[in-house]
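Hey team,

Filing this mostly as a record. A colleague (T.K.) asked me to run one chain through the structure pipeline before their review meeting, and I want the input and output archived in the tracker in case anyone asks later how it was produced. No errors, nothing strange. Just documentation.

Input sequence:
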Amino acid sequence: MPSLMNDLKSRISLTAQELFLTEGVEGVSMRRIAERVGVSATAIYRHFPNKEAILEEIIGSGLSILSNYLAPALEAPDPFLRLKGLIDAYLNFAIEQPRYFDLAFLVPGPTTHLSEELERHNRATFKLAVEQVGHCMQAGIFRAGDPIETAVYLWSTAHGLVMLHRMNRFGNTAEDFARLYRATIARAIEGLRAEH
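Output structure:
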């Protein structure tokens, strides 16, 4: 019996993820999940006490996916390559996982608890960027300055570009946008380099 219960919980979770990916947060409801899984709403409440619990599952999956995008960048041999890798991972996550990107960076959390979880993860992600900027300054790659201000400059440039693309302001393909994004970021980074 426990395996049947776990299987149903997995089916509920998977269905919620599918609804989220196709329709966003507003598309996820207990009634719609129940209809798609082929069970009563009561059966769903045995596994998830409310919609917030289901959204927690979705957020957990999204944050795990984001971590998977960021992790390879942190294996690069020097801080400059790690920073570039993080900026590139941000682009790839935004293009390949737009719903999760919205949830992580745009959609206000539906409850205080979920907002706090997202905020904690976003702070940790930003801290990684600040650390790499700081290391680049210490290594003489970037001019000396405030690592936080510099990281904000790079992140706001990256985020602004992604948002303009998402609003279709550039009117081009994802591939064309990726080239524009990388060229713009490269120009921004060039302006931070220490003079030798």
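Quick notes for T.K.: The CA atoms of residues 42 and 49 lie 10 Å apart. The mean pLDDT is 88.
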